Amino acid sequence: MSKRFTVGAVATAAVLALTAAGLGVPASAAPSTSRTFTVVAEDGVAVDTAVAAIRAAGGTVVSSSDEVGMFQVTSDRADFASRAAAAPTLVGAAEQKAIGRKPKLDRVEQEHLTAATKAAAGAAARRGAKMDPLDDKLWGLEMIRADKARKIEPGDRRVTVGVLDTGVDASNPDIAPNFNWALSRNFAPDRIDVDGPCEVPSCLDAVGTDDGGHGTHVAGTIGAAANGFGLSGVAPNVSLVELKGGQDSGYFFLDPVVNALVYAGRNGIDVVNMSFYVDPWLYNCTANPADSPEAQAEQRAIIKAMKRALEFAHNKGVTLVGALGNNNEDLGAPRTDTSSPDYGADPYPRPIDNNSCWDLPTEGPHVIGVSSIGPSGKKSDFSNYGTEQISVAAPGGWFRDGFGTDTFRTDANMILSSYPKHVLQEEGSVDADGNIVAGFEESVFKQCKTNGECGYYTYLQGTSMASPHAAGVAALIVSRYGKPQGRGGFGMSPDQVEQHLYRTAAEHACPEPRLQQYRNEGRDETYDAYCAGGLNFNGFYGYGIVDAYAAVKTPLKLNARP
Questions:
Q1: CA 6-10-16 angle, 5° bins
Q2: Gap between the Cα atoms of 239 and 375, Å rounded
Q3: N or C: which end of the chain has fewer CB within 10 A?
Q4: The sheet that has 454-460: what strands, in order across it?
Q5: If residue 469 lies in a helix (H) or strand (E), which one and from where to where?
Q6: CA distances, 488 to each of 275, 306, 483, 484 (Å)
Q7: Is 353 exposed, middle or buried (0-12, 13-18, 19+ CB in 10 A)?
Q8: Handedness of CA 458, 462, 466, 471 (dihedral sign)
Q9: How far does CA 236 lie from the centroid of its chain?
Q10: For residue 207, which of 253, 158, 154, 170 has the smallest C-alpha distance?
Q11: Angle between the N-to-C axes of helices 293-315 and 254-266, in degrees from 0 to 180, rounded to the nearest 10
Q12: CB within 8 A of 346, min separation 6: which ones?
């Protein structure tokens, strides 16, 4: 009997059909007229029927993710995408293409490096409960009471947290003790059109490496070891699993992201952190009049594949945590999108209809959406918000926090975490000998062991930094209340994790006035944000600021609602 693709009850017996390299056509393949597409089948369509439709449209199936009805396809037909979209058994085709190279320097996350002026950063150092040498700089750990939580529950080694990101630098002495080599995988081969020359002949970077830096920073916040060295994470004893679904350049393509989510579900990962959106569309719409028919079909394919993948992972026991985004807008009333597509063609204005457009994965099913707050507890100016999608708030940093004090526009307002040395060298803050360059002493830190092994750390800000704080608390919940499952397994229902996370979050009322403006911080009216809702739930804080201590101390209530 042929497998069929359904929503919410997808096939589980199928395995990923991959090439010898593990993930389709190598990015180093010789140039040709052939192009690569991700094709998604309609609901209920058998695998062989979908493959036949792809062939009829002029494509060749290279690999497939049968659990979600997704295929990687090559074709030399110029009209393949339109032919695939016209096939009644296929949703559409998303071409994998790019223009130029996306800068690694993110102007939100690394605002301190692009700022015109910098105040004396040293004045912003905060004295928290010191555990590891750099922990006194981790105001976020203190805000969510992770320092107190670990005295009750520091995390269980059996609990696995997937870092779906640009990779994880397992050589960092704070990451190495908790890195799970057996489960970690790379789903995103380097692509020379966006990532530059491949570091290895196969273009598939080794597990335990990170040429972007973003994933290593996220991993450190979740679970850097409390080992008397460097700094520690929210859940310092859990296992970190690299799920490389992002390119070195920062792009997140549909195919690697979906494959990573399917893998997480099939392999019993407990929590997955997703600090990104799926390129090239900031919002994927079913039929935006501003888009061409091909672009509409591509977005429908992305929506269908992502929703299937998130449903699959959730149904397999994965708690899904996602960043709300750094576009300073209400996700329930989105502005005109002027940034999409961010590769493949020039961006153009796209009015966004909230009823038929989604920011994925954060607006996908079962995703715990996290907003960012600064040290003051205020919503970071860049953070998305809104009662429609927000779940909780967490420390994500805010460089411009503290107006009127000596902490205003200082690095220590952001989130300090682990970072690869070679990425810091590429960015110019660490020299060829591994020493911190003059002028970066307050934004980059180096810790070395007596054997000469060193770890590096830097500040970033963003909802990408808030999400791992929440993911770390979710991992502590599974560690504290999880049960043995199956053959030697261990875990907890993601619905129970979510309910407990919400119930134990520290409620935080909307500010007064509710319309927050950021003129003192140098922002114009596009950053104005209105906080709707009450104490129990509102558009800035959701159910509240995640609280690690309350999460591990408060007894679990089955079927409780926040």
A1: 125
A2: 28
A3: N
A4: 415-419, 454-460, 444-448
A5: helix 463-481
A6: 30, 30, 10, 7
A7: middle
A8: negative
A9: 19
A10: 170
A11: 20
A12: none
Name every residue whose Cβ is closer than 8 Å to that of residue 379 and which is 6 or more positions away in sequence.
371, 372, 373, 385, 393, 516, 529, 531, 540, 541
Please report, as a single letter, which amino acid is at residue 416: L
Report the residue count for the chain. 562
Predicted local distance difference test score (pLDDT) of residue 453: 94
Q: Say which residue the tokens 């408060």 belong to.
A: 554
Task: For residue 118, count other CB atoms closer than 10 A to its CB.
Answer: 15
Predicted confidence at residue 413, as pLDDT, reads 98
DSSP state of 370: E
Give pLDDT tens digits for 186-233: 999 998 888 889 888 899 999 999 999 999 999 999 999 999 999 999
Between CA 227 and CA 175 the distance in angstroms is 10
At 502-514, the pLDDT tens digits run 999 999 999 999 9
One-letter amino acid for residue 547 of the chain: D
> What would the pLDDT profile of 448-502 be if each residue is shown by its tens digit?
999 999 999 999 999 999 999 999 999 999 999 999 987 678 999 999 999 999 9
Biggest CA-to-CA distance, the chain: 69
380's tokens: 């970071």
Pick from 236, 318, 219, 258: nearest CA to 94 = 258
Which backbone phi and psi does 491 adopt, to 5 degrees? 175, -165
Q: Which two tokens stand for residue 548?
A: 């690690």
Residue among 212, 208, 222, 220 at smallest CA distance from 272: 222
Six-digit token pair at 474? 């979710």
Q: Where do we find the tokens 């929503």? A: 7
Dist CA 312 CA 63 (whole Å): 19
For residue 127, report the phi and psi dihedrals to the nearest 5 degrees: -100, 100
Q: What are phi and psi of 65, to 5 degrees?
A: -120, 90
Give CA–CA dist 73/71, Å, rounded.
6
For the CA atoms of 175, 181, 182, 183, the dihedral, rounded to the nearest 10 degrees, stands at 60
Q: What token pair was written down for 208?
A: 């335990």
Do 235 and 223 form a contact (C-beta atoms < 8 A)? Answer: yes
